[in-house]
UniProtKB/TrEMBL annotation:
The family this protein is said to belong to: Belongs to the pectinacetylesterase family.
Record protein name field: Pectin acetylesterase
Function: Hydrolyzes acetyl esters in homogalacturonan regions of pectin. In type I primary cell wall, galacturonic acid residues of pectin can be acetylated at the O-2 and O-3 positions. Decreasing the degree of acetylation of pectin gels in vitro alters their physical properties.
Residue ranges crossing the lipid bilayer per the database entry: 21-39
Biological process annotations from GO: cell wall organization
Keyword Membrane belongs to the record: yes
InterPro entries: AB_hydrolase_fold (IPR029058), PAE/NOTUM (IPR004963)
């Protein structure tokens, strides 16, 4: 597989730690490969000491057997938890890991041999970005209890076991049960006493954060400040450049295979085919809990898989462009700009929501909240001189309205665009 790097202006990637760079490269490799069509609970006590930059252990779900909550291969799912300190012991930020979806027995079976389908491959992790514990790099959430939920069901935590009887392959579609079991365990570990809570997620995890946002709100007392953040989780229902609804058909397969309809918004599935309710544009207006959307205007994953899948570009005329935006010609940039405009149009209604927030930056990127370089650092991308972390903090703590929409590419000199070549 090709190596991944960043290109002009080369600023923040050069300052990543060796460990963060390794994690980023490995995660991107798995993400791109997978999405191209395709013990016991960790108990803790209050602590006033900030954690060091150490590996956060993987915690297998202690109640997995009781709850029948299993990864695709039947292994026990889990999470990473780093306890809060100082004033953050009763505050929680939870990040749902991303990693695409599987839409067939074949693609789900492949995932069983990776950490996206089996906990057998899950290792300790290091927290950065929104999960970081350095105040200078994560000013609003550095003291909080931090959780990373690992993703091993292939359906954004929406699968139901009834669908397993149709496949006869031994695959487990238990995403909804995994979600419920992890929430039960976190509640028992102190989440039930939270004063503030933020559910976030990246990519497929960002979609999960939107799908389960109101459920998360209902788990906690009404006086708790509960909000949700979706990072690169607003996937568009757009036809590809050949005029084919390739991604819509993909989502239809995911929803049907995993029996996901029962987990989707009822006010959406009552008027549309369930698979259409996997697209946030169809249900975001019905989410009652305050939501913040972080999305690049030129999301490289959506460009490669929604707008220009390989099937729509048999001669490879888009290959260089969709891997590196600086290699696009003027005609190609027009197509990408139309895709960005489609995103903004579908967010028209959301922009009118006084409780909503957004950060739509014109970088060639994907998930941005889990890495320090794109979350909050002197060299991070900005809109109106605000980093993503600053915008999210403004919104979460009601300091000011936080709706940031960037000008078109290539206007933003703070962007460090991804290159996948």
């Amino acid at each position: 597989m090709a190596t991944h790097r960043f290109f002009q202006p080369m600023k923040w990637w050069q300052k990543l730690t060796r460990r963060e760079w390794t994690i980023a490269a490995a995660s991107l490799s798995i993400l791109i490969f997978t999405l191209s069509f395709i013990s016991h609970s960790h108990r803790f006590s209050i602590n006033s000491t900030p954690p060091t930059d150490d590996l956060v252990p993987f915690t297998p779900l202690s109640n997995a057997q009781k709850k029948s909550a299993f990864c695709l291969d039947g292994s026990v799912p889990g999470y990473h938890l780093q306890k809060g300190f100082g004033s953050g012991t009763d505050k929680w930020v939870i990040l749902v890991e991303g990693g695409g979806w599987c839409n067939s027995i074949k693609t789900c079976s492949v995932r069983q041999t990776t950490k996206l389908g089996s906990s057998r491959f899950m290792e300790p992790d290091v927290f950065h970005g929104i999960l970081g514990s350095d105040q200078s790099l994560n000013p609003d959430f550095f003291e909080w209890n931090k959780v990373k939920i690992r993703y091993c069901d292939g359906g954004s935590f929406t699968g139901h076991p009834e669908s397993e009887f149709k496949n006869g392959t031994g695959l487990f579609f238990r995403g909804q049960l995994i979600w419920e079991a992890i929430m039960d365990e976190l509640l028992s570990l102190g989440l039930s006493n939270a004063k503030q809570a933020l559910l976030s997620g990246c990519s497929a995890g960002g979609l999960a954060a939107l799908i389960h946002c109101d459920d998360f709100r209902e788990m906690l007392p009404k006086d708790v400040n509960v909000k949700c953040l979706s990072d690169a989780g607003f996937f568009l229902n757009e036809k590809d450049i050949a005029g084919i609804p390739t991604f819509e058909r993909f989502y239809e397969d995911v929803v049907n295979l995993q029996g996901a309809a029962k987990s989707l918004k009822k006010d959406c599935t009552s008027r549309l085919e369930p698979y259409k309710c996997f697209f946030p544009e169809e249900f975001i207006s019905n989410i009652k809990t305050p939501v913040f959307l972080v999305n690049p205007g030129y999301d490289f994953w959506q460009i490669q898989n929604v707008l220009i899948p390989d099937s729509a570009d048999p001669h490879g005329s888009w290959l260089r462009c969709k891997l590196n935006i600086t290699l696009c010609n003027s005609k190609q940039l027009e197509v990408l700009e139309d895709f960005r405009k489609s995103l903004l149009k579908k967010l028209d209604g959301f922009q009118q929501n006084p409780e909503g927030g957004m950060f739509i930056i014109s970088c060639f990127s994907h998930c941005q909240t889990w890495m320090t370089g794109t979350w909050h650092a002197p060299y991070s991308p900005k809109i109106d001189n605000k980093t993503i972390a600053e915008a999210v903090g403004e919104w979460y703590f009601n300091r000011k309205a936080a709706k940031y929409i960037d000008c078109p590419y290539p206007c933003n000199p703070t962007c460090s665009h991804f290159s996948l070549t």
